[in-house]
Amino acid sequence: xxxxxxxxxxxxxxxxxxxxxxxxxxxxxxxxxxxxxxxxxxxxxxxxxxxxxxxxxxxxxxxxxxxxxxxxxxxxxxxxxxxxxx
Length: 86
Hints:
This protein is α+β, with helices and mostly antiparallel strands and 86 residues long. The chain has one domain. It is 36% helix and 12% strand. The chain is built from two helices and two strands, in the order ααββ. It has helices at 20-38, 45-56, and strands at 64-68, 75-79. A two-stranded antiparallel ribbon has the order 1-2. A hairpin with a 6-residue loop joins β1 (64-68) and β2. α1 (20-38) runs antiparallel to α2.
């Protein structure tokens, strides 16, 4: 009988930039905001801010932590999320 090894679950980055919603917003958000403003129906500031926060959420270029295991010395980069308090 083999001993069961303690296996810690692995962390895998969720790549938000590969999701359909992100791709659509990436390609069309600036145009949508500009079109609404041109029609004299601008989006409320808080809506634009939420879209912009979503576009930065989970993207390492907008901030991350570098974590290192003290036992095995493995390193991971964990991108900041856009979670907010209401």
